[in-house]
Amino acid sequence: MSYFRAENLSLHFGGLKAVDAVSFAVEKGEILSIIGPNGAGKSSIFNLISRIYPPTSGRIFFEDQDITQQPAYDIAKLGIARTFQNIELFENATVLSNLLVGRHRHSTTRLWQELLFLPSVRAGEKAHRRRVEQVIEFLDLEPYRDKLISGLPYGVRKVIELARALCSEPKLILLDEPSSGLNVEETDDMSFWIRDMKSELGITVLMVEHDMTLVNRVSDRVIALNYGRVLAMGSPSEVQHHPDVVAAYLGA
Amino acid sequence: MRFLFKTDYEDDIRLFPHSGYVYSYGLLLAVLLIAPYVLSSYLMSQLVFVCIYATVGVGLMILTGFTGQASLGHAAFLAIGAYTAAYLQQFNVPFPVYFLAAGLLTGVVGALVGFPALRLQGIYLVIATISFAFIVEEIMARWESVTNGNEGMRVKAMQLLGTTVSRDGPTFYYLCLAVLVLTIVGTLNLLRSPTGRAFVAIRDSETAARSMGINVALYKVKSFAISAGITGFAGVLFAHKLSFISPEMFTLQLSIEFIIVILIGGTFSLHGAVLGAIFLVMIDPFLTYLKDDMPGVIAGAAATLGAGTERAGHIQDAVAAFASANGLKGAIYGVIIVVFVLFEPLGLYGRWLKIKLFFQLFPLYKRATFKRQKIYVKSERNR
């Protein structure tokens, strides 16, 4: 059985088939990229997995558990974290509290304990902070701890979003265009981090990406989509040379 | 300027970041403790109202400032707290019991209001909370067997530890102060733990909050319940302070006053609730002065400028008519809100931070330092 599996996943908006009977599987510990032209349904698949949209039909399995009907907030609790294409950070909070929100799924304290800030809450906060610091070190975010998000440049926000996802200690991470808006150097850093996430942290990565250099450098396998359907699946070079994929991109 | 060198995670957790805070807040507390022996009884009474309004302000701040859910129904929560106290008092229930009962009941009602509010945002939520306030006001007027209808209810003096606590005495003031301080400490505790961060997360991006594992609906209901509960506690004190409550005290205007408290104070910090409460309570004597003395002053000025006695008399009458016109108070509140939103969106506390930073950085202060934070008042942020 695969680690993560989507079976005949569909998302229809009226007559528009954003995602049309897509099936794929992600093996544990691999980096799988989804590519495709704009509007191919890549982000929609992510939104289906993180339950922002309910699927029209089809099922999603994670660790052999059907998660199609789980509420959105439970997806994170199962160990699936995500980033967003258009950065969704908590703008008027500091970097540190943004990252601590990533720890939410691990918090065990109850409301009344928090009101009194009992020693258990204090100990929990320190434990969360320790994990957050590890992620800060991993992604070189030390200079920004106490900065408000609203004052930070785009490139840094992108990394912070990744950091927030990592803080939840996910088993599977969904990266929605991790390199969009980043310059060449930042994209390089991103590709190292993505590989390190796999090799050092043992996280399975599912990502949507347009930058083929990045895709080629990090992916184990690639899926190409167009008009909500799978065109090709396989190693990066296989997919890139698949006639249907070439046709979809070049319009031939 | 002070530089903090953090050596322990504790440095980011503790309530007072450095000794300067301990001294300044300690001094403030000392001043507040000796206040009853120094200030006139009128000012003491105002100070009690400051405490009560600030408590409500902190409650509203949790909901509106930190969770991003606007409410124009907090007068109703205050009323529920006040009426619960007045009702239970008739059966000789001791103060601590009905105090807690009022807070709990209001919290439960707050949670019940929170459920339908889950699907509403922005202006629709405001309308829903207004309707809730009207419903409560109507119930207070009609449910005569419990609330005594429009006749209102008399609230007897508080009995605490076998003694009668006068609503004008220092003990009552200390009680209100203690409730305020405990509320603030509890809220600060909440804000530095997972629940508080979840509130802020919901305010800034519900989608991201959900994908981080936050049960948005549950936390919104929690926020409503906590906010309402705090307001309920304040309601008990409010009832005791006024010693008489009736439905027409808990109108929309009172809810708007609470919004003013946090808006004028600054919606991003608890300091704002206290500063806003001081502003609101102190503006009342100012308005009274305007009403009583302004006509005379203006007429006198007109007379000195050579307007003649008769014309000065006309002017006096005209100004007096204007100053005692119905709804003038509401209009002035409206103007204050507009002026603050336009020119000082960070409120009084924001202004205080700017002044502080000006002196800390002198002569290097840049106006642009606070520029980006202005984004905060963009309408979509209050959605």
TrEMBL record, chain A:
<dbReference type="InterPro" id="IPR003439">
    <property type="entry name" value="ABC_transporter-like_ATP-bd"/>
</dbReference>
<keyword id="KW-0813">Transport</keyword>
<feature type="domain" description="ABC transporter">
    <location>
        <begin position="4"/>
        <end position="252"/>
    </location>
</feature>
<keyword id="KW-0547">Nucleotide-binding</keyword>
<dbReference type="GO" id="GO:0005524">
    <property type="term" value="F:ATP binding"/>
</dbReference>
<dbReference type="InterPro" id="IPR051120">
    <property type="entry name" value="ABC_AA/LPS_Transport"/>
</dbReference>
<dbReference type="InterPro" id="IPR027417">
    <property type="entry name" value="P-loop_NTPase"/>
</dbReference>
<protein>
    <submittedName>
        <fullName>Amino acid/amide ABC transporter ATP-binding protein 1 (HAAT family)</fullName>
    </submittedName>
</protein>
<dbReference type="GO" id="GO:0005886">
    <property type="term" value="C:plasma membrane"/>
</dbReference>
<dbReference type="InterPro" id="IPR032823">
    <property type="entry name" value="BCA_ABC_TP_C"/>
</dbReference>
<comment type="function">
    <text>Involved in beta-(1--&gt;2)glucan export. Transmembrane domains (TMD) form a pore in the inner membrane and the ATP-binding domain (NBD) is responsible for energy generation.</text>
</comment>
<keyword id="KW-0067">ATP-binding</keyword>
<dbReference type="InterPro" id="IPR003593">
    <property type="entry name" value="AAA+_ATPase"/>
</dbReference>
<dbReference type="Pfam" id="PF12399">
    <property type="entry name" value="BCA_ABC_TP_C"/>
</dbReference>
<dbReference type="GO" id="GO:0016887">
    <property type="term" value="F:ATP hydrolysis activity"/>
</dbReference>
<dbReference type="Pfam" id="PF00005">
    <property type="entry name" value="ABC_tran"/>
</dbReference>
UniProtKB/TrEMBL annotation, chain B:
<feature type="transmembrane region" description="Helical">
    <location>
        <begin position="45"/>
        <end position="63"/>
    </location>
</feature>
<feature type="transmembrane region" description="Helical">
    <location>
        <begin position="21"/>
        <end position="39"/>
    </location>
</feature>
<keyword id="KW-0472">Membrane</keyword>
<keyword id="KW-1003">Cell membrane</keyword>
<dbReference type="InterPro" id="IPR043428">
    <property type="entry name" value="LivM-like"/>
</dbReference>
<keyword id="KW-0812">Transmembrane</keyword>
<feature type="transmembrane region" description="Helical">
    <location>
        <begin position="122"/>
        <end position="143"/>
    </location>
</feature>
<dbReference type="GO" id="GO:0015658">
    <property type="term" value="F:branched-chain amino acid transmembrane transporter activity"/>
</dbReference>
<protein>
    <submittedName>
        <fullName>Amino acid/amide ABC transporter membrane protein 2 (HAAT family)</fullName>
    </submittedName>
</protein>
<feature type="transmembrane region" description="Helical">
    <location>
        <begin position="172"/>
        <end position="191"/>
    </location>
</feature>
<dbReference type="Pfam" id="PF02653">
    <property type="entry name" value="BPD_transp_2"/>
</dbReference>
<feature type="transmembrane region" description="Helical">
    <location>
        <begin position="258"/>
        <end position="283"/>
    </location>
</feature>
<feature type="transmembrane region" description="Helical">
    <location>
        <begin position="331"/>
        <end position="350"/>
    </location>
</feature>
<dbReference type="GO" id="GO:0005886">
    <property type="term" value="C:plasma membrane"/>
</dbReference>
<keyword id="KW-1133">Transmembrane helix</keyword>
<dbReference type="InterPro" id="IPR001851">
    <property type="entry name" value="ABC_transp_permease"/>
</dbReference>
<feature type="transmembrane region" description="Helical">
    <location>
        <begin position="95"/>
        <end position="115"/>
    </location>
</feature>
